[in-house]
Amino acid sequence: MFSRDMTIAGFDDVLFDAMQKEVARQEAHIELIASENYASPRVLEAQGSQLTNKYAEGYPGKRYYGGCEFVDIAENLAIDYAKELFGATYVNVQPHSGSQANSAVFQALVKPGDTILGMSLDAGGHLTHGAKPSFSGKHYNAIQYGLNDQELIDYEQVAQLAREHKPKMIIAGFSAYSQIVDWAKFREIADEVGAYLLVDMAHVSGLVAAGVYPSPLPHAHVVTSTTHKTLRGPRSGVILSAENDADIEKKLQSAVFPGGQGGPLMHVIAAKAVCFKEAMAPEFKTYQQQVVKMPRQWPRCLSNAVTTSFPAAPKTTSSHSH
To answer: Which of 49, 62, 149, 190 could potentially form a cystine with 195 if both were Cys, beta carbons 3.0 to 4.6 Å apart?
Structure first.
């Protein structure tokens, strides 16, 4: 049987040692991986809670299991906090990751074989934006746009490809791009060809929440994000919309559950609620302002060897990465 004083130390010392060394590594090293961050003690508390024991297939008030009255509170709080934080009218906090959030949007809005238009992997896009190894490149006719000579998104190319191929969905957002994206321009192009606009703001959602990077919510049909990058939350995903389109919202709900997932991770959803509430605090905005300032110092601070290794790197940045 279990007891409250059980620990990994003494039970599996090899595993415990690896965990302790990872803590030391994170504390002693400066982490320059833009997709990583440090979850707060409150987030870690929620993730390690007994909510992990609860099965809760379905949505608040409409579960397939009994005893969900308290996890319903946690999920509703996460939804309400995210709506307030991002100005969304629809939120789904059940996706287990950013990729699963994107997969749900694909399942909801396009069919296998449909044409999609996304940023190429070598230009800074994500695997789920149409790269060949991904479901998005295998099951859909994926057309890719890139950057111009100034290493900026080539909006003329986006428009030209959209007019030529008539995609059912255009994907804006990135995995490695350091400048401001013109969300309104993407929506203009999408409307011209009758396409849905999906924005993946995984890398900048914390900046968006703090108001230091333009929000895509007023422009996109659907927005997805991870919650563990600049948001400093648990490793997970979220889907948002401010489109006020009941049909889209219904399709998204069904695509997440039962379309792509079964039971939600209620301990992680509780951690998302913590994350979203923490992001409403004034100190979070101060933190994000510093996040944007720091990478702008890299050209001055980094050695000549590093800048020589990356000759195409932009000289300036408007986000958290360089």
So the answer is: 190
Helices 69-86, 266-278: crossing angle, 10 deg rounding: 30
Instruction: Provide the domain count of the chain.
Output: 1
DSSP class per residue in 133-185: TSHHHHSSEEEEE-B-TTSSB-HHHHHHHHHHH--SEEEEE-SS--S---HHH
Which helix (H) or strand (E) element contains residue 58? strand 58-59
Q: Give CA separation, 190 vs 197, 215, 224, 242, 281, in Å.
A: 6, 17, 17, 16, 35
Count of Cβ atoms closer than 10 Å to residue 259 Cβ: 14
Question: What pLDDT, on the 0 to 100 scale, is given for residue 18?
Answer: 99
Q: What percent of the chain has pLDDT over 90?
A: 88
Q: For residues 245 and 37, is the Cβ–Cβ distance under 8 A?
A: no
Closest CA to 253 of 90, 19, 75: 90
Q: 57 in a domain, yes or no?
A: yes
Mean pLDDT, residues 33-48: 95
Q: Which residues contact 256 (CB under 8 A, 6 or more apart)?
A: 92, 94, 95, 104, 239
The CB-side HSE value for 121 (13 A sphere, CA atoms) comes to 10
Which residues belong to the active site? 55, 57, 200, 226, 229, 235
User: What are the tens digits of pLDDT across the range 108-131?
Assistant: 999 999 999 999 999 999 999 999
Q: Is the pLDDT of residue 103 over 50?
A: yes
Which residues form the domain of 89?
A: 50-278
Two structure tokens written together for 176: 């490695």
Here the CATH number for the domain that contains residue 122 is 3.40.640.10
- Which two tokens mark 144? 């890719």
Q: For residue 233, is it within any domain? A: yes
**pLDDT tens figures, 285-316:** 999 999 998 877 776 776 555 555 444 445 56
Which candidate, 221, 216, 224, places its Cα nearest to that of 244?
A: 221
